[in-house]
Amino acid sequence: MAANEQADRLLGLTSTVTVTLEQEDTTVAHLLYRMSQDTIEVEAVLFDLDGTLIDSTQGVFNAWEGFGKIHPFVDGLGWMEVAHKTHGRRLVETLKQYCNIPDNKLPAAITEFEDIVINYGGGPQVLPGARELLEEFKQIAPDRWTIVTSASGGYASAAIAKRDLPIPSKGLITADDIGPGQGKPNPAPYLAGAGRISDQADFATKCPWSGNRRCPIRSRCRAASRRQNPGFENLERVSVQVLPSGSLRLTIDKADHPTTAQTTDST
Questions:
Q1: Average pLDDT in the 36-52 region?
Q2: Is 220:7 a contact under the CB 8 Å cutoff?
Q3: Catalytic residue among 25, 38, 50, 55
Q4: Which of 11, 93, 191, 242 matches a 20 to 30 Å C-alpha distance to 103?
Q5: Do 137 and 43 form a contact (C-beta atoms < 8 A)?
Q6: Considering 25, 38, 48, 75, which one is annotated as catalytic?
Q7: Predicted model pTM
Q8: 50 a catalytic residue
Q9: Is 176 designated active site?
């Protein structure tokens, strides 16, 4: 199935509404499917890692600045430009594209880069509400969530362990699980995440995801629905409960956050 067809299946273009949780300029979560004001009913949830559950911004900036001194960036770009251009993408692609690191040296370069991020300033910080929401999922719906990240398996496991966050019982979807050219914003990681939770053919249409604001699925949703988006600061405003039907109900506290008009992404 083509990527666009997969995206259409994930969406349900005529009815899906995007709820965006943003902290400053970083999208914290997209919660899709059967929205009714403050609640959404879903079968499972796919979380992004960095920018949703943890924040490693300063470590990433430090790593890019250091790499730029050793491996000059293409086209005379500065490290800050590269850091913004590569947000949410896999290092196996970005180090090769912007630092001209050959394939045979990529594994060592990725490890070096991720070690800087993990160890800079005490490591990634847990974002508000993330630990509490994951603990809630772990207790009442342990098999109904996972993490889908562009990071390598080594980095994701190290970051989660360093901050002592709950680990999905179904395991993670990382850059190591996705084929060449299929990293975010390609739908493949999200489809893999849904497949990790259930083998039902249509299960991906029932899972909201969190994280990547550049995902074409979200762009298609925006093209299909011009409704307004409530804004949120962080995951402290989201809770989950299991319904008698077995579905999950996500409740979003929108207090003190007036609905804002939908805007076009700059990324």
A1: 80
A2: yes
A3: 50
A4: 191
A5: no
A6: 48
A7: 0.71
A8: yes
A9: no
